[in-house]
Amino acid sequence: MRALVKHELQEPTKLSVLLLFSVLISAAYKAFLIGYKSSFSSTYPHFHLHRVFVEMGHSNMTFYLFATLMASSIVGISTRTERDTGVALSIYALPYSRKAILTAKFFSNFLLIFVYSLALHVVVFVLHFSGTLEGVLNALREGIPFVIIFYIIVTFYVVSLSSFVAISSPNTYVAIMVSFLALYFPVLANIKWLMPALTEWWEAGLSTYATSFKTLIFLSTVLFIAYIIIGERRDVR
Q1: What span, in angstroms and rounded, lies between the C-alpha atoms of 62 and 193?
Q2: Which class for 133: exposed (0-12), middle (13-18), buried (19 or more C-beta within 10 A)?
Q3: Which domain, by its residues, includes 67?
Q4: How many domains does the chain have?
Q5: pLDDT at 165
């Protein structure tokens, strides 16, 4: 299992896509922080810097646009490309069960997107407010639990839905396009319970923070199970 995950994490095409979107997502974070500049300047030192730290992700629709497109591309490449090219015949001939291979793909995609998104979030925030080191450290201490939970749930959702669509699609291009549309449509249609965006949960505590995502977690779990079931039964060609 570890060898499968390592192989997936080192796949060069996925890493190239990740690098491209890392630049775009960093720009989205930076643009969001620049937009906060006037509010921050006019209310400092009473401005809650940890609030900016949390809102960089949950209130940033530009970030979500790039994140959904990145997830769709990475998962589509991971799940469908090898089937389109015939490489899957060799991979699924390895001494691992289909469930193990599919789970390794899912976990590696989840890990890549989660780690990179969280790392970019923290790095861009720290660099932007590097002149107020004490404020940055306080913001990290107060906001990091919410940010970590947010990225875990968002990544689980986008990877689960993208994986389900990809394993059900006829080719990589359809998988990427349909996954992206399925992930971003709730934003366009304002379907709030399908939009992984936070409310002011830092005022209510982590219990409310977790409870507010129950529906999304349940849906993600169902999609993950469906992805495994379809992947085990569908021909690899």
Answers
A1: 19
A2: exposed
A3: 2-233
A4: 1
A5: 93
